[in-house]
Specification:
Uridine Diphospho-n-acetylenolpyruvylglucosamine Reductase, domain 1, 3 domains, 326 residues, Uridine Diphospho-n-acetylenolpyruvylglucosamine Reductase, domain 3, 11 helices, 18 strands, four-stranded mixed beta sheet, binds flavin-adenine dinucleotide, Uridine Diphospho-n-acetylenolpyruvylglucosamine Reductase, domain 2, alpha+beta
């Protein structure tokens, strides 16, 4: 470890830290130590970290706001880069943003510049990089997710900086190419519409207001499971059989999506606890940390939820939260 630390210090400078508790960098307030950590203030620092980790054969992961991760109690046996590259520039209807720019700040800067489109992202915690990785946003809104507004993304791929177009990013519901490739997202250019500040501010109020009833004041990672997409007629028929007579079913089938919060609630799991982790009593797709929860408590609770929903409705839930260090 001493040798690797020396190499990292030699190549990345004195900002390298060792044995840093990741619970301080996650919204869940859960997670053991990162063996090494670099808080990167520029894209160049992320690039250098990526190249050095590659040379040393050291596992590396980038975190933004830590709002969509569950970090193992054993931590991460490699280099964790915290993206704090918060450079932002508006030129006509395009915004250049470093991966570490917070979404709330991005939205307010866009509105300030008379641009519109990304207001649904205003209350989504985290950074531009994290949002691109999982195509964050409000999929129930037309053009409510970040991928809709991306013009290009710069990423570190095989030690080279590559510019991807929106199409090449392969955005879909809670997905992008980056989930598969694990390339490091450095920055993005968003292309927005010209708007009207007053209308945008009203939209912001609406989206912030809509968060009432969600457990924003408790440590969590937001929605734990993705919603269940119902695409084919056969899937509609199956859901009608399995969930017959349940309130709101027809409404959800019309939208071609069953909310996981609804399924978990229908399974009677609101308030269910394992250790210090609890299914939120406000929003059943959130697991909240009641104070001192372990990653293992959350994992056990997630597996219980999956099993109950599978047994009761024959539906398989899939994790939205990203596991780190497992
Ligand atoms: C209270 C609450 C409400 C939420 N509401 C929503 C919502 O409405 N809609 C929604 O979509 N999400 C929501 N989320 C989840 C979360 O806000 C989003 O997933 C967000 O995009 C995570 O961004 P982040 O920067 O925190 O990513 P992190 O949690 O830091 O990372 C998430 C994943 O992205 C990867 N990653 C991050 N940055 C980079 C980078 N620069 N390069 C490569 N990979 C990277 C990480 O390695 C990790 O795998 C909510 C979360 C909370 C806590």
């Amino acid at each position: 470890m001493a040798d690797i630390l020396k190499e990292l210090e030699k190549n990345l400078g004195p900002k390298i830290q060792a044995n840093v508790l990741l619970s301080k960098y996650t919204n869940f307030k859960i997670g053991g130590p990162a063996k090494y950590m670099l808080v990167a203030d520029t894209s160049a620092e992320i690039v250098r970290a990526g190249q050095v980790a590659h040379e040393l054969n050291l596992p590396l992961i980038v975190l933004g706001g830590g709002a969509n991760v569950l970090v193992s109690d054993r931590g991460y046996d490699g280099l964790v880069v915290i993206a704090k590259n918060q450079q932002l520039e508006v030129k006509e209807n395009k915004i250049f943003a470093g991966a570490g720019v917070r979404l709330g700040f991005l939205v307010t800067q866009a509105v300030e510049a008379g641009l519109t489109g990304i207001e649904p992202l205003v209350a989504v915690p985290g950074t531009v990089g994290g949002a691109i990785y999982g195509n964050a946003g409000l999929p129930q809104e037309p053009k409510g997710c970040i991928g809709e507004w991306i013009y290009s993304v710069d990423a570190l791929a095989n030690d080279k900086i590559v510019k991807y177009t929106k199409k090449q990013c392969q955005f879909s519901y809670r997905n992008s190419r980056f989930k598969k490739t694990k390339e490091l997202i450095l920055s993005a250019v968003l292309q927005l519409d010209t708007g009207d500040k007053v209308t945008s501010q009203q939209l912001i109020k609406k989206y912030v207001g809509a968060r009432k009833g969600q457990p924003y004041n408790m440590p969590s990672s937001g929605c734990i499971f993705t919603n269940v997409e119902i695409k084919s007629d056969a899937q509609v028929k199956e859901a009608q059989e399995k969930l017959k007579g349940r309130e709101k079913l027809d409404q959800f089938l019309e939208c071609k999506q069953l909310p996981s919060s609804w399924l978990i609630d229908q399974a009677g799991l609101k308030g269910k606890k394992m250790g210090k982790a609890q299914v939120s009593t406000d929003h059943a797709n959130y697991i909240v940390n009641l104070g001192g929860a372990k990653a293992d408590d959350v994992v056990m609770l997630m597996s219980f939820i999956k099993q109950q929903v599978r047994d009761k409705f024959g539906i398989e839930l899939h994790e939205e939260v990203q596991y780190i260090g497992f």
